[in-house]
Protein 1
Amino acid sequence: MLPDFRVRQRDYLLEISRAITEQLELPTVLKRILQAAVELTAGQAGLIALREGGRWRLRAYVGIPEQFVSAFDPLLADIPDHDDPERFEIPEVSRRLQRIGAVASLGLLTGVGLPMIARREVVGLIFILRGYGNQFSANDRALLSSFAVQAAIAVHNAVLYQQVSAEKRRLDAVLDAYADGVLIIDPAGKITRFNRALSTLTALPAPEALGLHHDDIIRWAHRPAGPDLNAAMADGWPLPGTTAPLYVEGDLLRRNGGIVPVGISYAAVFDREGRLVNVIADVHDMTRIREAEELKSTFVSVVSHELKTPVALIKGYAETLSREDATWDRETVRDSLAVIIDEADRLTELIESLLDASRLQSGDLKLNLSEVALDVLARQLIEKFKTQTTRHTLVADFPAGFPEVLGDEERLRQVLSNLLSNAIKYAPNGGEIRVRGISKPDAVELRVSDEGAGIAAHDLPHVFDRFYRAEGDLTRRVKGTGLGLFLTRAIVKAHGGEIRADSEPNKGATFTVTLPRYNGDLAS
Ligand code: ADP
C-alpha cells in the first residue's frame, strides 16, 4: 500500500497534469495549482507570483482575504530579480511571515517558498503558509518540490498559450484593420482566414467564408486577361523557394450579384522543407483607380474635342482673313472677327472651368463673402441672356423684399449663369424660362425652370457628376463639357447650400438651389 502522502501526491499531480493538458487560461491554471498545493500540504493559505516586466507580481492567492493581499508585497520585494535557477535563492520566509501574518490578521504564520522551474527558467514562485507551530517537515518540502516541477510546466504552458492567443488576437486585429481584403488558403485551396475588408468587398460574412474553397469566393465576371490562380498553379506556380508573387486583375463577382474590379496579389508561404503551407491573397479594390482612369480618358477626349473646335475655327478664320490674294469687304471682316472673338471667349471659359475643377480637387476654391441680392443678380443676368435668344421668354419671379444671402457674388453669378445657359441650350424650341425666388424661415430657394426636353430619370442622379453629359441627340448637337453642373454644385455646397434637379421628360427641367438664410452677422 502506498503511504498516505504518496497517494495524495499522486492525486494532486494528476490534477496538475490535467491543468497542463487542458490549455486553460493562465488565471484558472494558477488558481488550480495553488488550491492543490495548499490542500496537498495541509496549508492554510498560498500565493503564486510570476515574473512580469522584470518584477515579481502576485498573480494568484488562496486563503487570504482580498484586503490583506497587499501586505505580502514586502515578501516579493526581497526575491532575486532574475529567472536563472542556478543562482536563485528564496530568502527565509518564516520570519517575514510572522510580521505579515500579524498585519493581515491571519495570526502567526510559518511557510515555505519554492521556485517553479521550467525549461531552465524560474517561471514563478509558490508560497504555502500554515499556522505558526505547524512547521513544514522534510516530507512536506519534498512533496512540494516535486509538485512545483509539474506546476512549473503547467504555468509555462499556460503562459505560452496566453502569448500565442494574444499574438493571434493581435494578428487578427491587424488583418481586420488592413484596408485591403486578405484571404489565406491552405494547399488544398480551403480558406483559413478571411478579413473584414474582404467581407465588405465580396458581400460575404467571414464566418460563412471560412472552410469554403478559394474558387467559391474568387469568381470572375469575365476571364482575367492573364492566368488566374488555378491556371498559374497548373503551370507550376509557386516554385518552392521562390518569392515571386502572382498578380491577377479582373472583375470579381460579389455574393449580392454586383461586380467589383480588383487586383489580387498571391504570395506563397513554404515551410523549411520547401512544402507549400499557405497562399496569402491581398485583394485590392480597384474601383477608384478605374474611375480615375475613366475620368482621365474622358478628360482627354472632352478637352481635346472642346479645345480643338474653337482653335480650328479661330485658325480657319484668321488664315482666311490673312490671305494676300483676296480682299474682304468690311462686313465679312467684321463677321469673321466676331467669330474669332466668340471662340476665344469660349476657350477662356473652358480653361476657367478646367482650372476651377482642378482648384476644387485640391480644395482651393475660396469664397469672397459679401451680402448678395439674388433678385438683383437674377434680373441682371436675365437682361444679358435676353440678348442671346429670341425664342425664349425669360422671367424673374421674386417676392418684394427678397432677403439677401451671404455669399461670393461672382460665384453665385456663375451658378445662375450656368443654370440659365443650360435652360436655353437644352430647350432649343424655346418656351418660358423662369427664375423664381422663394423665401423660407431658414433658407432661400432659387428655382430655374425651363420647358425643354427635360432629363431622363436615369440621368437625373448623374447630371452633377464631373464630365457627365446625358446621352441623346440633343446633347450631341449642343456644345458642352459636362463640367457646368459639377462646378455649380461645388459652389453651392461651398456656400453651405444644396442643389437638386427635378424633371419629367418633355415637361422641362427645374434646378432648385437652396442657400442658408443670412442672419445679418458677417462673422457667423
Ligand atoms: P454641359 O451643358 O456642358 O454638357 P452641364 O454640367 O452643364 O454640362 O450639364 C450636364 C448635363 O445635364 C448636360 O449635358 C445635359 O445632358 C443635362 N442638362 C443640364 N441642364 C439641363 C436642362 N436644363 N435640361 C435638360 N438637360 C439638362
Protein 2
Amino acid sequence: MTTPQQPRAQWLGRWGFVLAATGSAVGLGNIWKFPYITGEHGGGAFVLVYLACILAVGVPVMMTEIAFGRRGRGSPIDAVRRVVTESGRSPLWSLLGWMAMLAGFMILSFYVVVAGWSFSYLWKMVTGQLAGSNVDDMVAIFAANNANPFNLGFWSTLVTLLTMLIVGKGVQAGIERSVSWMMPGMVIMLLILIGYGMFSGGFGEAWRFLFSFNAGSLTSDGMLAALGHAFFTLSLASGAILTYGSYLPSRTSIARTTFSVAVADTLVALMAGLAIFPIIFANGLNPGEGPGLLFMSLPLAFQAMPLGTLFGILFFVMLSMAALTSSISMVEATVSWLVDNKGISRRTAAWGTGIVLWLISTLAMLSFNLGADWTLAGRHFFDWLDYLTSRWMMPLGGLGMALLAGFVLKSESFREELGLAPHWHALWLFMVRYVSPLGILVIFVDALGIARVEFGMHWPWLLLLLALVTLAGEILSPRLRRTLAG
Ligand code: PHE
C-alpha cells in the first residue's frame, strides 16, 4: 500500500467542491439523456420513480461516497481500502472501488461521442447549416451527422483531447471558474426555451406527459432505467463524486453539499424536459425517438424564435461546456489512482488514459456507422457501454457502498465524517441500511423477472416489507442501538 507523498490537493474556494460536483452532475445526463429516456419509457410514471430514486437512493449514497472519499483521501480504490482497513475489515471491499473506476471509464467512452454531437451541432449552428430545415430535415441531418465515421470521429476525438488537456492540468484550474458562470447561463437558456415552448402549442401536452402519473405505463425495464439514471445523473458509483470528495476540506458539511448538488441537478433535468417536449409535441415528433431527441427538436425552436441563431449558439456552447465538466470528472478517479500509485505525473497519467479511452470511444463511435451491424443480443457497442454501466454496475456499486457503510464499517468513522446531529445521522443510517438497498433490490428482482412489483398497487406491501426488514436488521445488528444512544 502506498501513501501519497504530498498532501492531497484541495478545492480553492468555499464553493469549490459544490461547483465542481455540480459541474460533474449536471451534464448530458440531464439535458440529453433524461428527456430521451423519459420519452422512451412513457413519461410521468418514469419521472416519478426517477425522483423517488434520487431521494431514497441517490442522496444517501452520494453522502456516503463523499464521506468515503474524504475519509480515505484517495482514488476510489485507495479510499475504500483505507476506510475499511481502519475499521478492521477485509481490503477486498476495495473491489467496489475498482468497479467504480471501470464504470467511470466505460461511461466516458460513450459520453465523448454524445459530447461530440453537441460540439458538431454548435458548429452547424455557427455555420448556418441548420437554417431553414423542417422536422424531416432535422431527422435526416442527425442521421447524416452519424453516418460518416470521419466526421463523428473528429468530434469525439476533439472531446477526448479537451478532456485530457483539462484533467492533465489538475483539479483546481478552471473547473470552478467555468462552472460558476456556465450553470446560471444554462438555466437562463432553458428558461428561454421553456418560455418559447409555452407559446408553441405543445406545452400543455408536454406538462401532462411529464407529470401525470399513469402507473400502467411503466415497465420493469423502465424502473431499472430510472434507478440507473438516478446514479448516472448524480455521477455516483463511477468514481467521480468519491474522488472529488477526496479533495474536500474537512470542515465542509457533506449533507448540505449533497443536497445542493442534488437539487440543482434535478431542477436542470426537469427544466430540460419542459424545454424539449413542447417542441416534440408541437412538431409531431415521436417522444420515443431515442438518443437523437434533443438534436432533432431544439434546433427547430432556435429557428423559429427571435434571435434564435444567437440563442442556439449559446445553448450548444453551454451544453458542450456542461459535457466537459462532467467528462473530466469521469477520468479523475483513474488519473488520481495512477498518480498516487504509479509515481507518474498527472500529465502523463492523463495522456496515457486518453489513448486507451480514444481507442474504446472510437469503437463506440463506430456503432453509428461502420459498426451498426456489430451487435450482440440486439445492442451495439455504444448501447452495451451505457446498458452495463447504468443498469448494472452503478446500481450494484451503490448497493455495495450503502451496505458497507451501513453494516460493515465501525459506526464511529462515518459519524465523525458526516458530523450530523444524532437524529439526522439515524435517518442517514436508516436510509443506507434499509431504504436504499431494499429499493435497489426490489427493482432488480422486478427487472430480472423473479417477481413482479407493481408500485401502483403494491406500495403498502412494500412498506410492510421495509418495516419487517428494518426490524429484523435492528434485532440482528445491535450496533445501531449504540449509534442512536451515542
Ligand atoms: N452526471 C453526468 C451527467 O448527468 C454524467 C456522469 C456520470 C458524470 C458518471 C460522472 C460520472 O451528464
Protein 3
Amino acid sequence: MDSIVITGGNRLNGTIPISGAKNAALPLMIASMLTAETVTLENLPDLADVESLVRILTNHGVDFQVEGKRKGQAGQMGRVVKFTAGEIADTTAPYELVSKMRASFWVLGPLLARCHEGRVSLPGGCAIGTRPVDLFLDSLRALGAKIEVENGYVVASAEGGLIGTHFKFPKVSVGATHVAMMAATLAKGQTVLENTAREPEVVDLAKCLNAMGAKISGAGTSTITIDGVEKLHGCRHRVLPDRIETGTYAIAVAMTGGDILLKGAQPDLLQEALDTLVRAGVTVEPTNEGIRVSRNGTDLIATDMETQPFPGFPTDLQAQFMALMTMAKGTSHIKETIFENRFMHVQELARLGAKISLDGQDATVEGVSELTGAPVMATDLRASVSLVIAGLVAKGTTTVNRVYHLDRGFERLEEKLSNCGATISRVSE
Ligand code: EPZ
C-alpha cells in the first residue's frame, strides 16, 4: 500500500491550481441519469471517488467518455467528461459498489424520478458518524414513493411517477437536499423543499439541472421550489472550484509560512473559513486569479471555531484547522456539530506531539512550539490531509499511511505541494 513521506520544515511559496469540487462533481454525475441525452461536465477532478461513481453509473448503463485529459502542468483546465444515460439498464445499485462510497446511494433520486423504481443498497457504516438515511427516505415518501427496506436494500417505487409536494427537512442535509431536488425535477406539479442545505454544491447542482431544462428556484437559500417538467435534456456544465481543497491549502501555507496563490479559488465559497484564518493571524487576499494566502514572520493566534452548515465553518475543514491550532500561541476550542465521530485525527496528531483533549464534541487544543515527525494513519479523507499539514512543519520525517483516503478527494496532492517547495513524495510498497 502506498504512503506519503514528508520531511517537515519548508515554507510554501508559489501557485496551487484548485481542482473541480469532488462534492459537486459527484451529484452532477448522478444527475446525468435523469436524461437520455449527454451531460458534459467540464473541470471534473481526477479522483478515486469519481472513479468509484463511474463504476456505479456504468452498472446502471451510463456511458462515460473523457473528452480531454488534464495532464501535468499547473493551471491547466480540468478534464471534460461526457455522461450519457441513453437507457437505464439496471435499477439496482448493489452493496458491493454502494458500500465503497456513500454518495452513490444518491442514485435513488434519479432512479425513482426517471424509472419510477429503484433498489439501492443501504450505504452501511462510516468512520465519521452513523450517518442515517431517514431524511432521504422521508422526502422521497413525501414525493409519493413507496419505500421498504429489505435485506439491506432500499426498495422504492412510484407507480405513475413522483408527485410534487411540500416537505420540510427536520435537519439540514446536503445529500438529502441533492436527492430530493433531483427527484422533484421530473415530478408532477410543484415541490417546495424547506430547511434545505445552502452549500455551494447544491447551487451548482441546481444550475446544472436548470441547464438541463429543470425549473428550480431558491437554491442557496433554505427554501427551494421545483416545478416539475416532463423531460430533461443534455447540457454542458463546469464543476465549481473545490472549496475544501482551497481551504486545505490555505491552512497548509498558514501552517508552514510563505505565500501561495490558490489559482481559480473563489473566496465566497468559504468566507467563514477565510475569516477564521485572518483571526488566526493569516493574511488572505482575494485577487483576480484566485486567493492569495500568506504568513510571514507573525505568530499563529489560538482561535476558537465551531463547524456549521454553509455558510458556517465547514466540517470538512475541521481536522485541517485543528492541525493548524496545534502550533498556535495559546489554547483554542474546536466544536464539531455536524458529525458525532469526526475526531479520528486527534490521536494521530498527538503522535506528532500535539496537545489535544476531547470532551464529546468539543476539543481543546493547547498550542505547542514544535511537532515532531512520526508514522501516522487516518480513517477518513479530511483527517488524513490534516496529518499531511502537520507533517509539513513537523521536525524530521512523517509517514502518512493509508493514502487511498487522500486519493479519494485530493487531486495530485504531492505534486501540488512539492511544486511549492514541500519535501513530499509517495512511496509504493
Ligand atoms: C456531504 O455529506 C459531504 N459529502 C460531506 O463531505 C460533508 O462533510 C457533509 O455533506 C456536510 O457538509 C458529499 O458531498 C459527497 P449531510 P452528506 O447529509 O450529504 C445527518 C467529505 O469529506 N443525516 O449534510 O452525507 C448526518 O448523519 C465528505 O468530502 C441524518 O441524520 O452529509 C450528519 O450528522 C464527508 N439523516 C448531518 O445530517 C439523513 O438522512 C449532515 O450530513 C442524512 C443525514
